[in-house]
Amino acid sequence: MGGASPHAAPQGRLRIIFLGPPGAGKGTQAVQLAASLGIPCISTGEMLRDAIARQTPLGIKAEPIMAQGGLVPDDLLLAMIEERVRGKDCENGYILDGFPRTVPQAQALEGLVGSSLSDLVVFNMDVPRHELLRRLAGRQRHDDQGPAVLRRLSEYDERTVPLIDYFKSRTRFYTVNGYRDVEAVQQELRSLLDQR
Asked: How far from 28 is each of 96, 117, 127, 168, 190, CA to CA, in Å?
């Protein structure tokens, strides 16, 4: 039957998504898990910052939006992700950190990864609100200060509850207690993957 569609996932290809509020430890866990699995961790935030630093066409479009604290339009994000996941280092899979964040983004991702999300693994990092606030207070990023923190958490609540429901019915979905030390969480993630 000719060559495989560029969107079709080869057998055994691991595609993992991390969900969770700001401060839940998604980035830390995603990077460690990617390293242990030998697949890339794709952070949309890092990709956007890199595109801006290099002044690529996407970076030039995204820079004024991000400077105002706005959300980069889905079509720009998807174009960037589509190009990235076609890279040779993604042949055995990849981890997405920071995308999707809304149901429309998840629906667009479905078109990108193929006809079904059923072979995706989604880890939802669950951390109590008081701990999120404590962790975020220790960061130095300008969007992790005072009212901005509460705004980001409230935006997360608004957008992500529907996203969690969306993924629960379509993917292998696991809620993971992120209110533990990094290694304990990492061990649980690996053990859930072993059950695939």
From this structure: 12, 24, 14, 23, 14
Partners of residue 93 on adjacent β-strands: 14
Structure tokens at 109: 């991702």
Alpha-carbon distance of 51 to 195, in angstroms, equals: 37
**CB atoms closer than 10 angstroms to residue 126:** 14
The structural domain count of the chain equals 1
State whether residue 17 is helix, strand or coil: strand
Tokens in use for 56?
A: 């690529």
- What angle in degrees, to the nearest 10, is found between the helix axes of 74-85 and 44-54? 100
Q: For 98-157, how does the pLDDT look when each residue is reduced to its tens digit (9 = 90+)?
A: 889 889 999 988 887 765 677 789 999 999 999 998 888 877 665 555 677 787 888 888
**Residue 142: CATH number of its domain:** 3.40.50.300
What is the span of the domain harbouring residue 157?
14-43+93-194
Judge contact between 114 and 5, C-beta under 8 A: yes
**For residue 64, is the peptide bond before it cis, meaning its omega torsion is within 30 degrees of 0?**
no
pTM for the structure as a whole: 0.82
Express the helix, strand and coil content of the chain in percent, nearest 5 each: 55, 15, 30
